[in-house]
Predict the 3D structure of the following.
Amino acid sequence: MVTPSGCSGDDPVRSLSLRGSGASEADAAGLLGRSPAMIPGKYRSVSGRAASNVNCGLHLVIQTSSLPEKNKVEFKLSKETPSFPGRLLQHDLERNYSSRQGDHINLVSSSMPSFPILQRSSEEKILYSDRLTLERQKLTVCPVIDGEEHLRLLNFQHNFITRIQNISNLQRLIFLDLYDNQIEEISGLSTLRSLRVLLLGKNRIKKISNLENLKNLDVLDLHGNQITRIENVNHLCDLRVLNLARNLLSHVDNLNGLDSLTELNLRHNQITFVRDVDNLPCLQRLFLSFNNISTFESVCCLADSASLSDITFDGNPIAQESWYKHTVLQNMMQLRQLDMKRVTEEERRMASVVAKKEEEKKRESQKQSLLKEKKRLTINNVARRWDLQQHRISNIAADQDGRDSDSPSQDPCQNDGSTVSAFQEETGSLDSGLTSALQGLSVTDTHLVEVDGDTLSLYGSGALECLDRNWSVQTAGMVTTVSFTFIEFDEIVQVLPKLKMKFPNSLHLKFKETNLVMLQQFNALAQLRRVHQLTVDPQGNPVVNFILWKYYVLFRLSHFSMQKINGTEVTQNDMIMAERLFGILAHVASSELPPYHLISVLGDARKKQFRCLLETKGKKPGTVSEENDDSKRPAGENTNRAALHYTARDLYHEKLEEIKEKKKFCKMYIEDLVKEATEINMKNEALQKLWPQMFIELVRDAVIEVRNKSSYMKLCLRHITDQK
Amino acid sequence: MLSPERLALPDYEYLAQRHVLTYMEDAVCQLLENKEDISQYGIARFFTEYFNSVCQGTHILFREFSFIQATPHNRASFLRAFWRCFRTVGKNGDLLTMREYHCLLQLLCPDFPLELTQKAARIVLMDDAMDCLMSFSDFLFAFQIQFYYSEFLESVAAIYQDLLSGKNPNTVIVPTSSSGQHRQRPTLGEASVLEGVEASLFYQCLENLCDRHKYSCPPPALVKEVLSNVQRLTFYGFLVALSKHHGINQALGALPDKGDLMHDPAMDEALERLVVRSRLHRTSRQHRAKEPGAFGFQRREKLEALEREPSASAPTPYSYWW
């Protein structure tokens, strides 16, 4: 049994290897120092100085199958004084340094000036034939050790050695401890072919090198150095323990060939990712505490290691994450301990449940974002079409402005500019999986209908067809907000009756990019059942730039008692202002519009109402009509406002065409009538002119005829007889 | 109708010239349009109402543009209707853009062309910065000139252009005119140095135009007055002067003087009633929503009483101002 004397209690890392020694390798692997768990609490809190006196009496057993049983090496150190920890050390040190008491060891200046030569008394040699401890000797160089070729264990802890020298003759050396020195480079070891344990912790080594011949190395401790990368270790196929704690490693890779490695200590580095661990067939314990690992992806190769049973991640950003534990457990089913705590079955189950949920959630969210992306693309597509259409329309408008010019006259550049900019910046980044899935989507849709909670959103004029669909009563009842985007307002006007029927609860209307350009277009909304909120986005709706638009809306839709316009609460003052601005218009429309015209202006539904209004008006004009008008008001809109209605431009043009036809006919008809009338008039006048003369002539003829009374009588009598 | 001029023309021409035919045609057209409804309350009644409304100037409300501009009377009626309906906007002091005025016009005449509004705005803004804000009165008077004399102004623009380019418009437009013979062509140098055209020359051309113009044009005497104050003037300068000339406004007869533009007591009274009613209506509705029952009912009665009172005291629903 070998018990390397306790010395490095200050570094828990150094001692970690012990904890892992499971039953299966009880004979071999418990090698280094003490675990912090094994140091009594009162010491653990005390650093360096105090801990250096701790001697816990650890045992180191090195046994390989190649060695016969009797060759079992046993090192024993300070076992005899457990109650006075450090006493022996102190003793040895004093002994060696001051040569006071018997001087078992003598450091004598050699013939070579720089190297002291070590000699031991024969008695000493017999007692510790295979062991030499030179702790705390303030050595700055390795002494020349003569006549000790059989040495198996050599301890140079706590010196100031800068270079490994003068030990190449110790070819039977198995254990070499150079802990806490000032070595800057690994060298001078090429002849120590049987070396099994090499302890180089707490030195100044920058690079792992010159280990080519140490093929039997079992334990390599390089903790507390300045190593930045793992290299030149791939030939160490017997290495079981590698300690690289407290170095400057930024990542872990290049580990292949370490076929026997069971423990890898990488605590207190700056590691951000770990690779190659799945190439270590025997790795059981991996310590990654206090590094810079923040995602599970950067250590995902761990999941592929079948042998790993104990791992630590504490002190990494990843350990702060809520998903940390279950993600690790889910991905490493073989794990027995995580962060030094046993993994229970329960935890594992939990992890798998959580992971499953997570997976589902992820799939769901992926689906969601896929849908979202599809929606975005569709909307983009609709927007593009809308832009094109708008451009065309505005071009025509520009043409027409000269002659006809009641087409939507709006600024093409302003319109295009705003839409394009607004919708292209939304092209966000998507993870690769999603993008590939998206390529499968053919986004040729020209419209989009979406019901989200209480909002029905329609994009593109094709979406209006959805109002013909059969909506479930529940959905239809739930929808309180209807939003229109990229649809001509005139097209919307035509489906408003359908909207009123299918979504009776819609209270909030939203318009964006709908080409609202005129106040009169708002008239169309009066036909709805009720509107409590109206939102008209300035984008693509130039009408919103008018100062008066809100008041006009309030005035025209006063029967709805609007509550909000574009998100602003409607106040009593707003209502009064609206009435003051436009009240006269309504008054004129209702009281001065000739009745025959009012009929044609009012819709069919209103005609009946109007007729009875007309009847009462016939009897008592004025008073009754207003009363009547008011009594109907709570039920529907003001009759005096009904005259302010809106006909979509296309329809209006049709109507004008119709009127033109009628006019043509009327013109001809009137022309004929008037011509006839004037002709008659002319004849009449001509007759009037002739008549006096004619009358005189007639009278004169009659007088002449009756002048000769007797002959006239005869004539008359003859007439009578002739008749008989 | 029985003016002595009647005898100077054949009947048909006379009727056409006086636009009687236009109204007759339109009356029949309207009759056709609403055959069924009108036949229910009597064709005679319809014609009475129609010609009454023509006399009152209310016949143009919400009619198509082609009808509104068909006769000077219609144009004047439309101007007056526009003034009456949107006087409140001016009174409120809001300055509006050309497009907003256009929207207001479209409320009365859905197919009112943008071009006319633009031209009117050009008079106010002197042909630049078309998206500037204008006061109601500025716009209204400019619009009056532009709308009422629109054909006349087009001819004037042509004459102005000819004068600018040094042509003698009279030889082009009125070849038979004798007045053009002794007029000197303006020298090119003069025209290019000074802005606009010479006022007197311009007036001669306009006088000529007025003589033979078959559309309505402003009284020549007033045009002379406008032009006599200046030596030279530009086209828009001329239009601005026309629009600001109160004599022309009076001659046209559609709008009150600029000073009285915001006055319309009859309408104000009607408006007050409407405002009171809407206020009561709104509050009563709120009350009714909060606590239905006896209280709401009471309020409603009160409301009706309130309404009945002013309407009874205003027995003149029609104002014959023609």
